[in-house]
Amino acid sequence: xxxxxxxxxxxxxxxxxxxxxxxxxxxxxxxxxxxxxxxxxxxxxxxxxxxxxxxxxxxxxxxxxxxxxxxxxxxxxxxxxxxxxxxxxxxxxxxxxxxxxxxxxxxxxxxxxxxxxxxxxxxxxxxxxxxxxxxxxxxxxxxxxxxxxxxxxxxxxxxxxxxxxxxxxxxxxxxxxxxxxxxxxxxxxxxxxxxxxxxxxxxxxxxxxxxxxxxxxxxxxxxxxxxxxxxxxxxxxxxxxxxxxxxxxxxxxxxxxxxxxxxxxxxxxxxxxxxxxxxxxxxxxxxxxxxxxxxxxxxxxxxxxxxxxxxxxxxxxxxxxxxxxxxxxxxxxxxxxxxxxxxx
Length: 344
What we know:
This protein is an alpha+beta fold. The protein has one domain (8-332). The protein has helices at 8-22, 30-36, 52-60, 75-84, 93-106, 183-194, 201-204, 240-247, 253-260, 265-276, 284-293, 295-304, 319-332; strands at residues 26-27, 63-66, 69-72, 108-114, 117-123, 136-140, 144-145, 152-153, 157-161, 164-171, 209-213, 218-221, 306-309, 313-316. The strands form five sheets. A six-stranded mixed beta sheet has the order 1-6-9-10-11-12, sandwiched between helices. It has a two-stranded antiparallel ribbon with strand order 2-3. Helix 1 packs parallel to helix 11 (284-293). The chain is globular, with a radius of gyration of 21 Å.
């Protein structure tokens, strides 16, 4: 029987990365991710947090209709959209996040000329209706230069949709060296620190969901959420057998190579020994990640269960609100044979 490893890397981060891979995210090693954030291949733009080639590839597939014909975007239009994705941090994190949220939700308007005729078109950054048309990637130890250019931070895990960093995870070990503070509380504190003006708020300008996990359980929130409002999630739609199936789904040799090639061989061997020992027990960390970060749910939470309030700031719904609203919609969507809505 394998000995339990309580180091952060093995107890929480690797389980999170393997599960995200199972959910459909493609893992990008840190060195490759750094190169994708720069306009020049030889540079590593640690202040840039968008995966530029992935976002550009998505935009290159978009078309618009003008006078009955479909047209692809010109490079100049793609350049304009990419420019619009630079967060206006001079307005503050909350305003920058709301502006980018609106761009993700409604698209970005560009001007094109077709046969000398001017047309304004709104181009989507995310395909909300067809999940498979989007690209989902994940990386670890994302080096982000702080706003003053004097230091950098390394969020443990970042999830991207079409190259945009929509979710950030801080992963800690389950056992705390501080009697007064759990490791999840430490992860929350780290999230809050990193959003401060002199830290890396430009990463969080794009974020929709933030997770704090420690191998056993976890909490979630969104950009600007105070510590006291970080919450647990209780799933009402996904069954325990489905959680177990996802937790224990075997990764392909290519996926394992991608996840572990940059790690010491001992880590790879320990992982293989662990999964060879039989089915793994599902933890609340697993339930949180599956419930909130499977691609369809991540987009659903972003699009339908996130709002901005002038007083409270940005709010993401609690699980009671999410499933309560879904149940209400299901109820009012039922009609009898006469076409009347059934309210019982």
